[in-house]
Every structure is written in structure tokens, then in C-alpha cells.
Amino acid sequence: MLFSGFRIARPAALIGRLLWPIALIVVAVIAGMLLALVYMSDSIDEWSVAEHRHRLAEALAIHKRKVEQRLDTILATTDLNSPEVSRAASLPDAPQDDRSAPSGIFDALIIADGSHSIRPVAVAGTAPTADRRDGSESLEALVRFFIANPPIPGQAIDHFVYHDGAVYLLVAKDARGPTFAVAGTAGQTVIIIYRYTIGDIEAIGRAAGSAPVTLARQPAPGHQILPIKASLGGVMSLAWQPSLPSEDVWPRLAVIVALTSIIALIALAAVWLVARRMAYDQIRMQDLSGLLAGQDTLSGLPDRLSFSMRLEQELARGQRSGEGLAVLFLDIDRFKDVNDIYGHAVGDNVIRVVAQRLSNLLRGADTLAKLGGDEFAIIQTGVSAHHDAEALCRRILEAVKKPIEMGDTLVSVGVSIGIVLSPQNSTDRETLLRLADTALYQAKNGGRNRFSFVERQMDEALRLRKVVEDDLRKAIENDELVLHYQPQVEIDNYGVVAVEALVRWPHREHGLIAPQKFIAIAEERGLIIALGEWVLRRACADAKRWPGVRIAINVSAIQFRHRDFVSDVMRIITESGIDPTRIELELTESVVVEDADAAEEAMIELRAHGVRLALDDFGTGYSSLIYLRRFAFDKIKIDRSFLEAAETTGESAILIHSIVHLGRALGLTVTAEGVETQEQLEFLRALGCHELQGYLFSKPVTAEEIDELLAQPGVLQEHQPTLVKKVAQGSKSAP
User: Fold this and answer.
1) Which of 289, 294, 312, 313 is nearest to 304 (CA)?
2) What is the fold of 514-729?
3) Residue ranges of the alpha helices (H) in 129-209?
4) What ranges do the domains of the chain cover?
5) How do 482-490 and 166-174 pair as beta strands?
6) Residues near 51 by Cβ (< 8 Å), separated by ≥ 6?
7) CA neighbours closer than 13 Å in the CB half-sphere of residue 498
8) Which helix (H) or strand (E) holds 508?
């Protein structure tokens, strides 16, 4: 089978290519979920700790406010200077209150006067309990701090103090003011001292709703702390071991991950089963398509790709065996007419019949393929010379031209064949295909229903066309073209009245390329507008060197029909600064025939600006007289073909005579092209022709040579014999 070497991957490889990406995606998703959950659990733990710390700080602040409120109550209701208060403070067995009572929430109450003396006082419920007496001897050291930092009158200040392993809250207030009239004496500050016990700390923890709380200088590992910044004695902390939410989440998370993994494995197994089935289905489809691969569906013949591969194989075999082959390209002549007249169904049947007839003519080692449309190709093996391929081509022509019965209709077609031989022409596949196509093109141009072997000049022409297509745009853009000029002279004195601009292309590889080899390609490739503008701009620039001499410029039909043609012409003329009356545009009949109304409008506008118009190759068309009446030309140019024929036929001479007299009657300047002999000159002079152009006077030359020509009046007449001699030795056709 032709495509047996191009099988797709076997099922295992295909399944592997399908499963690996899916498995990686599943693993990545699970890993991403785990990372997200870890991040979320850490964030929740941090939030939980921060929330507990905040509630603990709130509970501590509430407790401190209770102490301050108790001080305010004492100052508002008790005369701290009364003998009863002082005596109570000196009693060793002062009554002890329950710490939960509002009146018994501190350890000591002290009055400090302005002389820095300290006087403890006793108020009902203020005597310290047994667990608070141990530190009472050291209270003086704590109070001295407030004496050095007295409160603002009427306001309270509080400080935490760390002393002898305990945390004290000292609240001081200046007792002056109307609110404290009962208690206040001038210059006295009342201080409450509160020492936090284990029970106090636990109560604060319970109020915050947290785990058991303790006082600690250095917390144990895993504990969180709320630092209590003390004004004296350093820092103590409330410490607790938090219960983190993540500790409850991770067991559940393990279950979720396990379930997700199980689901992922089940999904992978399902994908594997589906992929396995798809792989085997694709293998079966491949086996089926292998039968059809490389075949044209209409004819059942190998297609272009198959043919190309087969040719490569035959060339390799030929190089080993020394055997030659021929490549034939075939094209059914006028097949489009068959489709248009009889319909595509008949056209398809014609293709099938022709394919069958061609197959019947070939040997088993030969190859027939359908390249597309109505094009076929043949590889003929065992070819040693032209006559082998020629014999096959003659049999093909005879077989194909036989009428084809389509019901009640007989359809007749022909075929054109292009032939290339290997190794004579080439041993390269692409080169052979290109040359066969060139030969087919030559066969169709030669009259159809014939065959043509490739010739060297045909390949050179094809190569040149490709060069032109590839390089012309760059040549225009890079100003690589040149203009040559052929003089137009008055018939009476041979004075130069105009020069016709003719573009040339000096190619770096192919030398000077004449316009007939690239103008048509420029039109096909959409470059003719840019080319025409380049010619006009360069001609206007050169015209400045030759005052009084008109510049004749050829205009193609595509140029003239362009919607901006007139404006572009006038823009270039204006930019060059040349008088528009010195510009003469030469138009052929084809320019004005296709769209006469648009052509007439453009010509009227050009003449309004002063531009002259000439009808080139006059007499070669079928409607010249009609358009001479309608369009306002300034000049008609007699085509060179009339002068060439005038020497042998009387009809051409009569026609030239009629053209000259018609032009003079219409008031037009009459110019004859292709004047090459003295006899032609005298003939035209006798007819009354106004201007002459041809090799008798000068071939197309460079602008510098025109400079020399115009600098020597009469040089054309003096050098006529020399010029004629040169013409006889070289080409006689003016481009």
C-alpha cells in the first residue's frame, strides 16, 4: 500500500499520550487543593489565636476598670482622714471581706500627701485576705513610683508593676474636686494597690472564654501569650495553650483527600478505557483510509502527492539501474466548455472515461495519476529516447479523441501533452515536474491536441519569467530601471521634435531586459501603476535637459483605467515643474475601446491641462475611424507593420496613403514608426507625413546620447548611411 509507512501510533503509545497529561492535571489539582487547605488552616489558626488574645485583653481591661470604679466609689463616700478610718487601718485583726464583694477588690488603700509621706488607711472591706498579706511589707516601694508621677487633678492613672514574683495594679487619683468633697484634702493622692492571684488570672481567662491562663515570665513551648507591660519590674505575660481549629480539620481533611484520590483514580481508569477504545477505533479507521489514501475520489487514480512520491521512487530506481523514464503532463482541451454545455455530471463522466482509456494504454510498471481538475500525469518507465515517449503520446491522442457516448449525446475532447525525459533533462523530481508543466504550456499554446517535448529555451523563458516576477517590484522600488529614448524627427529638416521614452531593465544576472518581457507580468502582478509612475517621473526629470522637445510616453490600458490616473499624471508633472504641453501620452485602441465613456472623460480632462494625446499603432484595430471622430487626439502613429508590408504589397501602400490624408484632413499630426530605409523616407515624404521615427535616424539610446544628438544640429541627416548600415547588421525592430 502506498501509505503503509505512515501509520499512526499504536494504542499503547496513544493511550500514554492521552493519560499522562490527564494524570498530571489530576495530581496538580489535588496538590493545589492540599496547599490551599494548608494555607487556609494556618490562616484560621492565626485568626483564632489573635481572637483569643483580643478577648483576653478585653477581660483584663474590664477587670482594671472595676478597680478604678471601686476607687471612685470610696473617694465619693468615705472621709479618708477621719479617726475611724485611720484607727481601722492600725487594727491587726481587721475584718476580711469576700473578694467577690464590690468593697473588697483590692489589697491596700494609701494616701500620699504633698510632703511625700505615705499613710495606709482602712475602709470597710479593704483589709487584705490571708493570701494577700505576704507582699504588704513591700508596698511602699511600689507607691513611690506614683509619688514621682502624680496624676492630673480629678483624673486617674494606672500602672502594672511586677514585684517579688507578683503582678500589681496600682490605680492613683487626685482626690481634689467637688466630686470628692467628702474624701478630698488638699495635695493628697489616693492609691489603690491590687495584686493578681491565681484565682484572678483564672477568672480573667474564663471571662475571655479561653483555655486555662497562667502568669509566666517565659511561656512554655506551644503556649500563646498576652504581654502585660509593667512600668516597673519588667514584663509578665498571660499564657495559655490554644485549641487550634486545624487540629480538628486535619482528620477530616485526610478523609477528603482519600475520597478525592479514589475518585481521581476511578476517573483515570475510565479515561484509560475510553482512550483504549478510541485508539483501536482509530487504528481500524486508518486501515480503512489506507485503502483510499493518495487516491482521487472521482477517478480512483493516485493523486498529486502519490504521484510525486512514486516519481521519487522511480528516479531512485533509475539511478541504480541506469534506466530512463519520461514524465508526461496531460490536460484535456476545452474541458471547461464540456462542463458549461453539458453540465458537471457529464464532465465527471468524461474524466472517468479518459482515465480508463489512459489506463488501458499503459504497462504494469507505468504510473497514471490525476493531479486535479482535468489534469493527468504519467510516469513511463523504460524510456531510452524521445521516440519511446512519442509513440505513447500518439496512442494517447488517438484514444482520447474518440467520441464519448453519454446517453444520446456524443462528446468529443482532445488532450495536450507535455513531455520531459530523465536523465536527459534532469534527475531532480521538482525540476522534472516544472519542466513537464512548461512543455504542457507550450503544447496548449501550439494548437492543442498535440504533444511537446521540453526545450532548453522553454525552460529559460520560464526561469526568466520567475526572475521577473520575483525581482521587478524591488527594481521599481530601488530605482534600478532605466529609460532609453528614440527620436521623432520632422520630415523636412530632420530636426528632433520629440523623443519616445522606452523603459529598460538592466538585470544583474540576465543583462538588459526588454519591456515586452516584463510589462505583461507587471500588469498581472499589479505593478503596472507603480511602473508607469516611475517612467513618467523619470521622463519628466530628463525632459528638463531638452527644452522644446516633447516627451512621448506609452500608457497601458490598466494604467489608463485606474481611477486616479489623471490626478497622478498631473501631480507628477506639477512636481517636476515641466510644461504639460511637452508631455505626449501614447494610447492604443484597446485603451479606449473597453470603456469609451470613461476614456473620453479622462482624455478631455488631460487635454484641459495641456497634455497631448497620440493614438498609437493606428490602423491595426477594427474601429479606428469611429474613435478618431469621437476622441480628441493630437496625433496618429502609423504602425510599423504597414511600412514593412508596403514594399511587397500595394494594399499596404494604399492604406498608408489613406491614413496620412485622413490625419491631415482632421488636423492631426501623422507620425510613421519603423522607418528604416531611405526609400521608405521618400515614400512618406511624398505622401505628406509630418514626422518619422525609426532606426534610419536613431535606435533607442540613453539620455546622455540624446544630449549629444541635440547638441549637433543636422547630425541625423549626416549620419543616415551609417545608421542604415548598423541596422542591416543588427535588429531591425524598434522596441
Assistant:
1) 294
2) TIM Barrel (3.20.20)
3) 139-148, 198-208
4) 13-40+246-290, 67-195, 304-454, 514-729
5) unpaired
6) none
7) 27
8) none
- What is the CB-side half-sphere exposure of residue 332 using CA atoms within 13 A? 29
211 CB-side CA count, 13 A: 12
Q: In angstroms, rounded to a whole number, what is the distance separating the alpha carbons of residues 72 and 507?
A: 113
What's the Rg (C-alpha) of the chain? 57
Please name the amino acid found at residue 40: M
Q: Nearest Cα to 225, choosing from 243, 213, 233, 234? A: 213
β-pairing, 612-618 with 583-587?
parallel
47-61, 384-398, 530-544: least confident range: 47-61
Angle made by CA atoms 402, 407, 409, in degrees to the nearest 5: 55
3 state SS of 195 = strand
Residues contacting 606, CB < 8 A, separation 6+: 566, 569, 585, 613
Mean pLDDT of the chain: 78
Given a cut of 50, whether residue 165 has pLDDT beyond it is yes
Residue 528 in grid coordinates: 503596472
Q: How far apart are CA 399 and CA 23, in angstroms?
A: 64
Q: Which of 717, 670, 666, 705 is nearest to 689 (CA)?
A: 670
Grid cell 507607691 is found at: 143
Residue 411 β-bridge partners: 404
In this structure, are strands 414-422 and 325-333 parallel, antiparallel, or unpaired? Answer: antiparallel
* Buried b or exposed e, range 625-654, using 16+ CB within 10 angstroms: eebbeebebbbbbbbbebbbebeeeeebbe
Question: How far is Cα 408 from Cα 346, in angstroms, rounded to an integer?
Answer: 12
Dump pLDDT digits (tens) for 268-277.
777 777 777 7
CATH topology of domain 67-195: Beta-Lactamase (3.30.450)
Which residue from 408, 503, 509 is spatially nearest to 460, judged by alpha carbons?
509
Does domain 304-454 match CATH 3.30.70.270? yes
Any idea what the Cα angle at residue 554 is, between residues 551 and 557, rounded to 5°? 150
pTM for the model stands at: 0.45
Select from 485, 515, 514, 519 the least CA-distant residue to 499.
485
